[in-house]
Amino acid sequence: LGEIRIPIREHKDIALNLSSQHWFPLFNPKLSKKDGYPGELGMKIGAIGGDIISKKVSEYGELIDDRNAEEIFEEAASIALEGNNSVKRSLRLAEQTKQMQHETLVNIKGQGHQIERMQDDLYTIDNNIKQSKRKLRSIESFTGTLANTFTSSTNKNYEKKAKQDKQLFKKRNESEKKNKKIKQAQWEERRAADKLNSRKKRDAMINRTPGKREIESGSQEEKFYQIMDNTESELESLSCVLDDIKNISLDVNVELQQQNERLYALQHDMDKAGRETDKAIKRSRAILKA
What we know:
This protein has helices spanning about 70-140, 140-150, 155-205, 220-290; strands at about 20-25, 40-45, 55, 65. It has about 290 residues and is mainly α.
């Protein structure tokens, strides 16, 4: 699968029985991007024996940290890297969740289109039943033939209902597009504000004024800040993905509510069409017996 690189220095003073699990990324130069990420390896690393070892103690019993700034930043970079890897794992899981939710929404919308086609077919059936009733009326008596002569053969209710449904679907699509634009504008505004606040909090936390402090190139301090910047970028991406998941969930909820309403109306129309069909069959049997 690959190799891992473990900073032993950060773990040599911790007892093995007190150490916590760390995740180390696998490196495999033979793998290309299309082959995918080789993964990570989790393990506990520490020294055998003792509690906390190799630490200097003052005459008052206090621990003395005689490390220089470079060593401190090296440990900080190691800890920051663990946090960065954790954020990346969360981001991958969030993206997978977003993809599954998107596929679910697409399937639900496909079911909605099927309901619409069923509704159109039911309108056609209703229109055919009305035409059948006219023909049966003309067959049953001369009066029925005369009534058909002075009445329209078109099903105005059918045309009116179909036109109303088309207008309703068009209005709903326009409303969805409008709400999507509003949500996008709100999300961009909130993202810009969160990004600014995040930068201010970060600079306050590390007590560094951007653009005024010179950092030695290739130092552990530079590595630490690079990891922090990358983590911040990954967190912003994670925030965006979570916002997308939230919006998709809301869209799924709205779509399901609309489909429930259309299914209720569809069931009512089907019951009505069934009753009308039964009546037409009875009339046809009466005519055949006569």
